[in-house]
Design goal:
It is a single chain. This protein has 330 residues and is of the alpha+beta class. It folds into three domains: 55 residues; 161 residues, no CATH class; 99 residues, Arc Repressor Mutant, subunit A, CATH 1.10.10.60. Helix content is 52%, strand content 9%. A five-stranded mixed β-sheet has the order 1-2-5-3-4, with helices on one face. The protein is elongated and about 85 Å long. The N and C termini lie far apart (66 Å). The model has no long low-confidence stretch (mean pLDDT 90).
């Protein structure tokens, strides 16, 4: 509800009444005043969408100049022809600077991580810290939601940083930014796996037109499909510690629930057991080829609790024992 109060404050600053917008969103004046009250994603969509159109400002007063209705749609269209997500995000950030100089957005890739950095140039807190928070959250959710939509894939966040203290409604951040949340950071930013940048855009002009008819759900929707999940599972399973544990351990490492893990793998035509067998088999073969470690140590490094179960599984994978495989008898 804190965000609804910020939108109501924008109406007050412009001298307009928010009564109609609040009524459309089915938010009563008494509910608006409750400190710990909550609203649904649909209510937020109706309230913010109505305010943006009535005020003709998609930034809702956050910047020194208005962002007329359709500004973010224009940004989405300008990036639609990019060959991959990396280029689309860079274009989006560059074009955003044409709309306002109160913030600067940039895409920074270091190693296997990509960070979308939001640098504050103007005084976003001139209307209070709540207005500043709402602006930063709104922009970051916008770009993250659009990025997921571009490639039709969930992009798990490995970190979301915010340059303010945890707000009273801090528990809501886990819903908006699934992953590790960090408050009191130096600047606002989102971090994710760089491999998503290489994925091609899967949307065209027709899809864009349909999306723009109800674009605001992108700021709250979490995509089910993750087009890199299989690769991420294989990478996580490269650790012998993870290999030896169950779906709960792996799901925790990937910031998701075990149920979601199994469901999304199934959507990608894979299973956790299949991926574990692939990784275990390859790791065992590599160790048997490259080292002289005893079979017992190879078993442990491959995620098995005892040598017997490893030998039994290895025979299923290769048709021979680990010792015969090492000697080339297979």
């Amino acid at each position: 509800m804190a965000y609804a109060r910020e939108i109501e404050a924008v109406y007050q600053r412009t001298g307009l009444s928010s009564a109609s917008a609040l009524s459309l969103a089915q938010i009563t004046p008494s509910q608006l005043k409750k400190v710990d009250a909550k609203i649904t994603a649909r209510q937020m969509e109706v309230l913010s969408g109505t305010a943006m159109q009535v005020l003709d400002d998609e930034a809702l007063g956050a910047f020194n100049r208005r962002l007329p209705w359709g500004s973010y749609g224009m940004l989405a269209r300008a990036s639609l022809g990019a060959p991959d997500l990396g280029m689309a995000l860079k274009r989006w950030c560059r074009h955003h600077a044409l709309l306002t100089d109160d913030i600067q957005l940039k895409v920074v890739t270091t190693g296997g991580f990509t960070t979308i950095v939001l640098e504050e140039r103007g005084d976003l807190a001139r209307h209070g810290q709540g207005a500043r928070e709402f602006c930063l959250v709104h922009v970051l959710r916008n770009i993250h939601g659009l990025a997921c939509w571009y490639i039709d894939s969930r992009i798990p966040l490995q970190g979301a940083h915010f340059p303010f203290a945890p707000p009273p409604h801090g528990e809501a951040y886990a819903l908006m930014f699934p992953g590790a949340i960090h408050f009191d950071a130096l600047q606002a930013e989102l971090r994710f796996d760089s491999r998503y940048l290489a994925l091609p855009l899967r949307r065209d002009e027709k899809a864009l037109q349909q999306m723009l008819q109800r674009a605001l759900p992108l700021t709250v929707r979490q995509y089910r499909r993750d087009r890199l999940l299989v690769q991420q599972v294989r990478q996580a399973l490269a650790s012998a510690e993870v290999l030896s544990h169950n779906a709960d351990t792996l799901a925790t490492a990937l910031n998701m629930s075990p149920r979601s893990l199994h469901r999304q793998l199934q959507e990608e035509g894979a299973s956790l057991q299949q991926l574990k067998d692939e990784v275990r088999s390859q790791k065992a073969k590599d160790l048997l080829h490259r080292t002289t470690q005893p079979v017992k140590q190879v078993a442990a490094a491959s995620g098995f609790r005892n040598e017997k179960s490893f030998i039994r599984a290895f025979r299923v994978w290769t048709g021979c024992s680990p010792s015969d495989f090492r000697r080339g008898v297979h």
